[in-house]
Amino acid sequence: MEGSRQVLKFGGTSVGSGEGIRRVASIIRHHLRDGEGMFPVIVVSAMSGVTDQLLRIARFACTGDHESWQQELEALKRKHVEAADKAVYRSEVRRTLQHDLQVPFSMLEQDISAVESGLSGPTEEQADDGHASALALYAASTMSAWGERFSVLLVAAAARDLGVQTAPVREEVIVTADLQADRLPAFGTVIGADPLPQETRVNAGRLIHPLIERGIVPVVPGFIGRTTDGCVTTLGRNGSDYSATLIGAALDCAEVTVYTDVDGVLSADPLIVANTRLIPRLTYAEAARLSWFGAKVLHPRTLIPVAHRNIPVRVRNTFRPHMRGTVVGPALTTRSAAAAITVRGQLALITVENSDLFGAPENAGQVFELAARAGAAPVAICSSSGHHLTFVVEEQAADSVAALLQHDMGSWRVSYRRGLAACACIGSGFTADPMSPARAITALARERIPVITQGASEIGIILMVEESESERALRCLHRDLIAPVIPLVRHEVYERAREARQGATL
Fold it and tell me: Residue 41's beta-bridge partner residues?
C-alpha cells in the first residue's frame, strides 16, 4: 500500500477498561476511513495499573512468595477477561480473543516459575548480592513486558469486531542495547534500555511493512524491546510515548499522534490554575523545556527520535476525539510570547564561590563533573562568572553534591538552599520581548513572592521561588502573562459609571 503513514499511540488510561478499548477501536476505524490519506499504525500501552501489578508479581516471585503471586496472577487474568467481554461484542471474535489470551497467560506463568526456581532462596534483604540483582533485572524486564502483549490482543480484536482488518504484532519491534552491569536496578524495579535506531528500522520493515502492504492495520506493543541477542528489555516507566516516536521515525511516518486523557498541552497545570488554555502549537524546544520543568503530557525523551526528521507529534484526548489537540513540530517563522507556565519542585540551589574572588573558566567544568560523579545532573544553571556559580539540582541530591564539591574544590566555598521550586515561563519569543521578563518578575513582586534567583534562555525564563509559594506563583504568572482572570463581580466604581451612562441616555 503506497502513501504516508501515521502512528497512533494509546496510553494506559485510554485502554484502561473494556469500554475504553472499544472507544480506541472506534478511533482506529475513524482514522482508517478519514485519516487524510495516512494509513494508521497502532502502538498501545498496558492497561492502566497492569505494569505495577506485574512488578508486584516479579517481586513476589523473587522472594519466593508463591501464594501472593498466584493471587495477583488470578486478578490479572480476571481484569483482561472482563475487558475482553466488554470490548468485543461478536461471539466468534470474543471466543478467538479469549483463546488467544490463554497463550500469553500460560507463558507468563512459566516465566514466574522460572524466576521462582532460579532464586533458590534469597530474601529481599539479600538483594544486594550479584545473583539477586541480576535476577531482579530479569524478572522486572521479562514480566513487565506482558502488559503490552495482552493489550495488543485486546485492541486488535476490538477493532476487528468493528470491521477493521487488524493484526497484533507479537514480537518486539524496538531493538535495544544490552543493559550494562553498572545499571542493574534496585530490587523489584525496572529501568530503560537504550534503543538502536538503525536496527529498529530494519526490524520495523520486517514486522510492520508486510502488514501495511496488505492493508492490515498493525497493532504494536509499546514500552518493550529486545536486545540483538534476544533478551527482553523495556524503555523504562512511562516509555510508551517514546516507543511510538521511535517506531514513527523507523517507518518515516508523516505524523505521530499520542492519545491520552487530556485535550492536549495546556498553558498550566489545570489542578492548580482554573482558566488554563489549550496550546494549539508548540515547537520541539518549547515542548522539551516544558517537559523538563514538570509538564506531564509528554515523556521527556519522546521528541528525540522525530525532531531531527521534522515529524510532528500531536497530543489528543481519547475521550474527546473531536478535539484537534496540540501539535509539536518545527519552529515557525513567527515567534510567540509566553505559551505556558510550569513548575518543578523539590529542588535545591547550589552556590559555589571562590573566597579569594578569583577563578578560572575551567572551574565550571570541574563543578559539573563533580556533580555528575554524585549522580546529580543540573536542572538549571542560574548564574556563572569566574569566581561564582549557582545551579539547581534535585533536593535529594543536595547533601552529596555539596559534600563532594566542598571536599574537592579547595578554597571554594560551597553552600546550598533547600525547599525551592522553579517556575518556568516558556515561549519562543519570550526573552526577545524585553517587557515579558519584566512582567513576570513584576507579577511575583506584586504578590510579595521573592525571586531567589533566575536564569534565562532564548525560549524562556526560570524564576526560583520557595516551594511553599510555588502554586501561588504559578497562578499569578499565568494570570499576568497568559490568561487574565475576569472578575465575576463588578467593582462599585464601574457600576456607578454604568448607571450614570444609562441615566444620560434617558
Answer: 7
In this prediction, residue 64 carries a pLDDT of 86
> Distance (Å, rounded) from C-alpha 89 to C-alpha 69?
31
Contact 444, 419 (CB under 8 A): no
Local structure of residue 333 (DSSP, 8 states): S
Half-sphere exposure of 354 toward its Cβ, with a 13 Å CA cutoff? 14
Q: How far is CA 216 from CA 42, 162, 183, 222, 410, in A?
A: 11, 14, 39, 18, 66
Q: HEC string of 84-99?
A: HHHHCCCHHHHHHHHH
Of 339 and 253, more confident: 253
CA atoms of 328 and 310, how far apart (whole Å): 10
With cell 531531527, the residue in question is: 308
β-bridge partners, 278: 266
> What's the rounded Cα separation, in Å, for the pair 46 and 247?
17
Residues facing residue 424 across a β-bridge: 342, 462
Least confident of 85-89, 174-178, 376-380: 376-380
Domains of the chain, earliest start first: 5-261 (3.40.1160.10), 349-481 (3.30.2130.10)
Q: Which three cell numbers stand for residue 360?
A: 578560572
Q: Are 18 and 79 in contact (CB under 8 A)?
A: no
C-alpha cell at 311: 515529524
Q: 455-490 pLDDT, tens per residue?
A: 888 888 999 999 999 999 999 999 999 988 655 444
pLDDT (tens digit, 9 = 90+) per residue, 133-174? Answer: 666 667 777 889 999 999 999 999 999 999 999 999 999 999
Confidence (pLDDT) at 365 = 78
Print burial letters for 196-222: b (CB count within 10 Å at least 16), e (below 16): beebbbebbeebbeebbeeebbbbbbb
Residue type, 334: T
**C-alpha to C-alpha distances, 87 to 8, 153, 170, nearest whole angstrom:** 19, 11, 20
How close are the terminal C-alpha atoms of the chain, in Å? Answer: 73
User: What torsion, rounded to 10 degrees, do the Cα atoms 287, 289, 293, 297 define?
Assistant: 10
- Strand (E) or helix (H) holding 317: strand 313-317
